Amino acid sequence: MKKITQWVVGLNILSVLWLSLLFHQYDSKISKERFMVIQFLPIILLICFGVFALAVILYRVATFNDCKLAAEELQAEIKEARIALRKKGFKFD
């Protein structure tokens, strides 16, 4: 099963559960007491997902590591390319 299929199935299951609580298909005390929370549950979950995504991005940026060896190798390749291009008639400022 592809990942997108898993996400779609999961979202469908959550949507059915949410709609059943929203339209009082289950006669429970919790759904009557927490009806306002149930109404805004998709918005609340979307905000939570956004905060989580932002936290992950900030963490990954903060812990991004530098590759000194790769940077030096790239600089050496750039110098070699400039020398080769100068031999072919290109001019660099």
Element-level helix/strand string: HHHHH
Largest sheet: none
Helix content: over 70%
- Given helix and strand content, the structural type is mainly alpha
Radius of gyration: 27 Å
How large is the share of residues in beta strands?
Answer: under 5%
Contiguous low-pLDDT stretches (5 residues minimum) are none
Pfam families: DPM3 (PF08285)
Subcellular location: Endoplasmic reticulum membrane
Subunit structure: Component of the dolichol-phosphate mannose (DPM) synthase complex.
GO biological process, one term: GPI anchor biosynthetic process
Describe the overall structure.
The structure is a single chain. This protein has a domain at 3-65. Helices cover 77% and strands 0% of the residues. It has helices at residues 3-22, 29-33, 35-39, 41-62, 68-87. It is rod-shaped. Its main location: endoplasmic reticulum. This is Dolichol-phosphate mannosyltransferase subunit 3.
